[in-house]
Predict the 3D structure of the following.
Amino acid sequence: MGSKGYIFKVIKNASFDKMKSVIDEVHKRSGKSKVSIFFDMLMCAKKYGAGYYDYEIFAFYNLNAEQRKTFVTRMWSKKFIEYMNDPEYGDWLDKKDIFYEKYKEYIGREFINVKSASKEEVKKYISTREQIFGKVKDGECGHGCERLNIKDYPDFDKLYDYIVTHFDTIEDVIVNHPAIAKLYPNAVNSMRIITILDKQQVPHCIYIVQKMGLNGSIIDNNCLFTPVDMNTGKIKFPAHSGDTTKGIIYEEHPNTHIKLQGYQIPYVKEAVEMCLKAAKVVPQVRYVGWDVAITPNGPAIIEGNNYCAHDFWQLPPHTPDKTGMIPTIKKYIPEYFE
């Protein structure tokens, strides 16, 4: 689709109420006129493939043309995923039953597919556990997940009926490494590790963020996150709100009051090495965001994401040089830019 076609599509599908709300917020933050913001947004949609939320969260209103073109925007991300990932193989990441079989060497826990297993097999699996974690086959961002206490059910039949009605797989509950639990104890605080395979099928890690739960949540999605230095394993910056439009910055975790910048995350090197190996399992999917738990015994992959999201690795508090991720991607995938 050409740039004119894209901008007309953006205008056609835009929620003007939401767009107006974004313009109002940008006006408050920047002091610029709403009219100038509106026309600048349209120009950025045409030139950089940036949606109005991109314009807000990346603070395009504070960037010049050279800086803007370094950012992975919504449309740029979509096109790059289409270039890197064969859609026929994307399901191998998205569907939990296929993913667990393909990547079982790296997930570090036992699981069972309740749709294909017999009732007796499920009973045997549950009999040795006090807790289990249920997931739906196509769930994303923690949707459809639930941690179950076996003792909360009066008998196996009632538990089994609940499991087969609500889930596709059940698995062992992941336990955080003590250093990770210290950050926030109620959720598995995973790292998002992004890898790409170059033209020669050599894997590279291009970014890491540490995610954390918040305010009683049992999952870490849309709560807090902050970049991690892949060489030292230390948190590089204060955390950002999971809702990237809010722009809230956290010097410490608001529940545990752990100071975040400089905090040492264990097993980062091992986690990166694991993801680089996993990146080669399905070479038709070359661009993956891995969610990785750090357990007392080391890293374990929770899932791989065919859609990596494009916002949380380029936000203003984490890009003091006002440079997005496109130059890093170009370093490894130069042919995409030819």
Observations:
- The chain has 14 helices and eleven strands.
- The mean pLDDT is 91.
- The longest strand covers residues 203-212.
- The two ends are 18 Å apart (CA to CA).
